[in-house]
Amino acid sequence: MSHPEAYLTPAQPSPSDHGGKAKVDHFTLPNGMEVVTIEDRRTPVVTHMVWYKNGSADDPVGKSGIAHFLEHLMFKGTKEHPQGEFSNLVSDLGGQENAFTSYDYTAYFQRIGKEHLETLMRFESDRMTNLVLSDEVVDPEREVVLEERRMRVENDPAAQLDEALQASLFARHPYGAPIIGWTHEIEDLSRDDALAYYRRFYTPENAILIVAGDVSAEEVRRLAGQTYGCIPTRAAPPRRSRPQEPPPRAERLVTLSDEKVEQPAYERIFVTPSYATAAPGEAEALDLLAHVLGGGPASVLYERLVEDERLAVSVGAYYMGSALDDTRFYLFATPAEDVEPAALDAAFDRELARFLERGVDEDELRRAKTRMIADAVYAQDSQVSLARWYGEALATGLSVADVESWADRIDAVPVSALCEAAVKWLDKRRSVSGYLLPKEVAA
Amino acid sequence: MTAHHSLPRQSSRAETVQHVKTSCGVEAWLVESYAVPLVALEFAVGGGASQDPQGREGLSSLFAGLLDEGAGPYDSRAFHRKVEDLAIHLGFGADRDHISGHFQALTRTLDEGFELFRLALGEPRFEVEAVARVRGQLAASIKREAKDPDAMVAKAFREAAFPGHAYGRPLRGELDTLERLERSDLEALRAKLFGRDNLKIAVVGAINAATLAQKLDSVFGAWPEASQLESTPEVAVANVGERRVIELDVPQSTFRFGRGGIAKQDPDYFAAVVVNHVLGGGVFTSRLFNEVREKRGLAYSVYSHLQDYRRSAALFGGAATKNERAGETLGVIEEECRRLAAEGPSAEELDKAKKFLVGSYALRFDTSTKIASQLVRLQLDGEDPSYLDTRNAKIEGVTLDGARAAAKRLLGDGSLLVAIVGKPQGLG
User: Fold this and answer.
1) Which of A11, A443, B65, B93 is deepest in the core (most CB within 10 A)?
2) Which DSSP symbol is given to A202?
C-alpha cells in the first residue's frame, strides 16, 4: 500500500518511464548563463550547482592556486550578506554545501529540501558578482589553504611524486601545475589577485547552472530568470587559450625516494586527446581502452601482471576524458613484494606490445561496453552523479547532446578503433613514468 | 526570514517499507521503486574485526576481500569476467563490528546477478592463489599507511583508547598476523557468522516482495538459524587526559582527540547528537570550525563526531596544523571543549543545530544504495521503520536544559585523550 506523496514512487511502473533515462531540459538565459534541469522525483530534495568555466589551468603565470583560493574566498560574504550568513542559512534550512576546483572548472553546490531552491539561487547569484574581501578575511584563509596543501601534499610522498610527474608531463601547459598551487606562489596571492580573477571569470556568460532533483524545468527556468537572469552580461565569455604542449618526443622518468615510503609504487601517464580535442570516436576509444586495459580485475593488465606474472598486487588505468585541452591517460600498479618499479615499467612495455600484437578480442570489447553503458544507467540513481556529469561536460567544451549520446557512441566503437588509439596515443614517448621508492639504505 | 524546521504535511517514509519474511525464515526490509531499472541490496552480519582471534587480526578483512574472488564453478578469473558481463556491482567489507555486503543489478540481469551473489556467499572457493593475492593487497595497504600521518595517528589513538580490547587492534591486521591466516580460518569464520539470527538485509528498487522472497531464499535460505557470534565486551575509552606524541618528520602535526561518548540507546543520545553538532559536527557552523579554522586559519580540517561502535560509546575528533602552531591549535580545541562542557550551547546554537539535523535528514535518502544502507543501519540498531518518521521529533524534542546536561555528561571537565603525529611545538 503506498501514498501518492510517498517519498519513493508507488509500486507501479512510472508512466513517464524513460527506460532509466532522466528527463533533461537545457536552455540559455539572455545574459548567456546556461541552465540545465535534471528531473528526479523520487525524494523531495534538489541538488543546486553553479559551475564556472575556469579552473587552475586558467591561473595567471606565477599565480598558481588563485582559482582554488578564490573558491575558498567565495564563502566570505557579500555586501548584502556578510560573512557566514549564507552558510548559516543553508545549515538552518537543513542543507549541505561545498565547492571544488579542478583544472578546467570551479563549482559551488548545495543539496537541500526542494522548497528552498529559490533562496539558494538568490544567494548564489548574489555572490557571483557582489563578493566583498578584506585582508582580515583573506590572510587567515591563505593559512587555511597552506594547511590544506600540507595535509594533501607536504605530508605525502606519493602526492609529491604526482606533482613532479604532472610538471614533467606538461612542460608548457598549465595542467602541469597543481590545482592548489605551488607553496611559494600561494604565499604571495593577494586580495587584489583574487578580485581580478573573480571579475574576469565570475560572470553569467561564463557560468552554468545545474539543478537536479524534485523540480520541474518550468520552475527552474522561472526561478533562474528571476535571480541569475537579473545579472547583466559583461561581455562574451573569456576566451581560454592556454599555452599548448609541444609534441612530446622523449620518454621521461621521474623518481622520488622518501624514508616514509614502505610500499613502492609505479605509474605511467600519457598525454592524449580529450573528449573536447579528439577526432570523432577517438576519445570514446580511449575511454574503452582504459577500461579494457585496467578497469578492474577482469582487465587485460590485471590478468596478466597480477594473476599470471605476479609482478603486481594491483593494476589500474584511468582516462581523464573531461578536459578542455589534451589530457591524461594513466596506468598504475602496486608492485608485488621484492619487485622493483623499474621491473614493472619493463613489464608494462611488454604487455602493451603484446596487447597490440594480438589485438582486442570481441569478448573483451563487449564486456567493457556492457560495463560502461550499464554504469550510465546506474548513474541515473543519483541526482548528484547526474548533475556532476552534465556539469563536467558543459564546462569542458561538450554539449547536453554529447552527454545523452555518450552510451550510444561507446557502443558504436569498433575493435579497430581501440588498437589505432593505442598505437597512436599510448606511445612511450608521449609519457612520463614515475617510481615511488623507499630511501636508499647506505651500503 | 523564518525557516520552519519541519516540512508541512510530512508523508510517511515508514509506510514505504515492507517487511519481507521468506518461507525459510529470512527477513528483509524492502522499498519498491520502479523509477530506475535497478535493484540495490545491502546486508550486514555482526562480527567484523572485533571477532578476529588474537594473533589472527585481519581475518575479517581477508574474508570480505575473498568473497568476490571465485565461487561455485567459477575460479577468480571467470568470476571477475562474469561480474563484468552482467554489469553488476558486488562488494564486501569489514569494519570493527560487522561484515557487510553490497549487491546491485540492473533489472535485465537481475536473475543471473542474484545467482552470482548466491554463489559468492554460499560457495566461495578461497583458492590458494586468490588468498595469496588478496593477502598481498592487504599487506600493500598496510605498508602504504605505515608512515602516513592520518593512519599513524588513528593507530596511536586507538591503542591508547582501547588497550587490551579488540577495538585497539588493527582492522586489516599486521603483516605477520595476515601471514598466519589459512583457508580453515576463513571457513571457520563463515560458519561462525553466517546464521539467520545475525543477518540484516535491506533492498530498494524494481522488485516486488514475492520475487524478492524467492531470491532471498536462494541466497540466504540455507543459512542455519543460529550463528556463533562471540560477545565482545563493552569498553570505555581509556587514558582520557593523556597525550601520545609520535615523531615523524613532516611539516604538519595531525591530531586525533576524544573521550567517552553517549550510547544510541541512552535517553540523552539525541541531546548528545545536538551538542556534538555544535562542537564540531557542523561544517562551516561549528565552534571548532569557527575558532580553529575560520578565525585563526589554524587548520583546513577540524571536526568532532559521535563514534558508534557496538560496544563503546565515544566522542572522537581530528585536526591538522603546521608544527609551529600545534600547541595553539590544541589549546583552542581544549578550551572549546571546556567551555561547552561548562556552559552548554546557547539557545541560538541549539535552535540552529536542531534545524540542520532535522532539515538535512532527507538528504540521506536520495539514492537507492543510501536508502538501503540506512535501513540496514536501523535494523542493526534494533529499530523498526517507524524510526524514519519519529527521529526528527526526537531531535526537535531536545531542550536547552537537556542539551546543557548532555554537554556536561559528554565533555565532563573537558579533558581529552590526544594523539599527535608530526613534530608538534608548543604543547606545554
Assistant:
1) B65
2) -
Chain B residue numbers touching A9 (CB-CB < 8 A): 33-35
Q: How far is A248 from chain B (nearest CA, A)?
A: 32
Please name the member of A87, A378, A383 whose beta carbon is closest to the beta carbon of B366. Answer: A383
CB < 8 Å to A75, chain B: 284
Question: What is A318-376 written as a DSSP string?
Answer: EE----SSSEEEEEEEEEPTT--HHHHHHHHHHHHHHHHHH---HHHHHHHHHHHHHHH
> No. of H helices and E strands in chain B?
15, 11
Q: What is the pLDDT of residues B176-211, one digit of tens each?
A: 999 999 999 999 999 999 999 999 999 999 999 999
Give the minimum alpha-carbon distance from B359 to chain A in angstroms, rounded to a whole number: 4
Q: Is A148 in the active site?
A: no
Could B81 and A298 be called an inter-chain contact, meaning their C-beta atoms sit closer than 8 Å?
yes
**Amino acid at the residue B78:** A
- Whose cell is 567551555? That residue is B339
DSSP conformational letter for A380: T
- Across A375-427, the runs of DSSP E, i.e. the strands, are none
User: Please, which residues bridge with residue B252 across strands?
Assistant: B322
Phi/psi of residue B54, each to 5°?
Answer: -55, 130
Q: Give the residue among A236, A266, A192, A265 at the shortest CA–CA distance from A53.
A: A236
**Average model confidence (pLDDT) for chain A?**
94
Ordered strands of the A312-319 beta sheet: A252-258, A431-438, A265-272, A327-335, A312-319
| pLDDT tens by residue, B71-87 | 999 999 999 999 999 99
Q: What is the pTM of this model?
A: 0.94
Amino acid symbol at A199: R
Say whether B250 and A154 touch across the interface (CB within 8 A): yes
CA nearest neighbour of B342 among B247, B392, B275: B275
CB-based burial, A59-94: b 16+ in 10 Å, e otherwise: beeebbbbbbbbbbbbbbbbeebebeebbbbbbbbb
Minimal Cα distance from B132: which residue of A?
Answer: A313
CA distances to A142, A366, B371 from B340, in Å: 29, 60, 34
* pLDDT value for A239: 87
What backbone torsions phi and psi does residue A96 show, to the nearest 5 degrees? -120, 145
Could you report the per-residue pLDDT of B22-78, keeping only the tens digit for each?
A: 999 999 999 999 999 999 999 999 999 999 999 999 999 999 999 999 999 999 999
CB B257 within 8 A of CB B416: yes
Report the pLDDT averaged over residues A264-277.
Answer: 98
Q: Which residues of A touch B9 (CB under 8 A)?
A: 5
pLDDT tens figures, A171-210 = 999 999 999 999 999 999 999 999 999 999 999 999 999 9
The fraction of chain A above a pLDDT of 90, given in percent, is 92
Q: Which of A141, A151, A374 sits opposite B320 (nearest CB)?
A: A151
Query: B88-104 pLDDT, tens per residue?
Result: 999 999 999 999 999 99
Measured CA to CA, the distance from residue B244 to residue B224 in angstroms comes to 46
What average pLDDT score do residues A254-283 get? 98
Q: Does A362 touch chain B (CB under 8 A)?
A: no
Q: CA A236, CA A106: separation in Å to the nearest integer?
A: 19
